[in-house]
Sequence to fold (236 residues):
Amino acid sequence: MAPPAPHRPSVLHRLRAGMDGPYPVLPRPLDAASERWSSLRPRRRVLVVVLVLAITAAGVQARIVAAEHRWGGAPVRVLVATSDLAVGAAVPAVRQVGLPPDAVPPTAVTRAPGDGAVLALALPEGAVLTTSHLDPRGPAAGLAEGQRAVPVPIEDGWRVTAGGWVDVWVLGPGEEPASLVARSRPVLEVREDGSSPTALVALDGDTEVGPATTGLALGRLLLTHVPAPQATGDLD
Fold:
């Protein structure tokens, strides 16, 4: 017959056994503080605890005040995009966050817009939603004076996207060279309602719209990708 298995105490039993016995040996500074604490009367212990909590709260509040002073005040609740949103996208794809006042645009939106609101300007992920993005003029809100938004049919393979920058060319007939109609123009919106997508490109109304529409009528208009300008400012 096999010998009986040795009895193993349960975890609860071992925990209780570990709680019995003398106090553990503490480092000398901690041991002295423990002795000092044990010798205090109950009311003095309460007073010490209250003082420690008050000092801690004062330190935390001082750090908060210093941070607010550095960044312009208490955080402001604003709406930021949860993903890259193109012109015409629905606004509900935003979330509310707290930002320092110095980091908040003057026209930031602090409350969720009503149903059916769409973007008049592109809004990158993490950017703050402003009243300019909700301008009822739609894509025209991003145009400088004298500019026009010209729809240009594009192919899927061109990879023209809202927020990108393009040069506008008109191909010459036969062996004639192509002519540059507009340089470094922003793509305001890309729509895919019809059989082929259409890009809205901001062009100067006096010097660029005429040649571009002529190229469109002849089917010779071409867009080429270009890097974004170093400092765009207003569209010009």
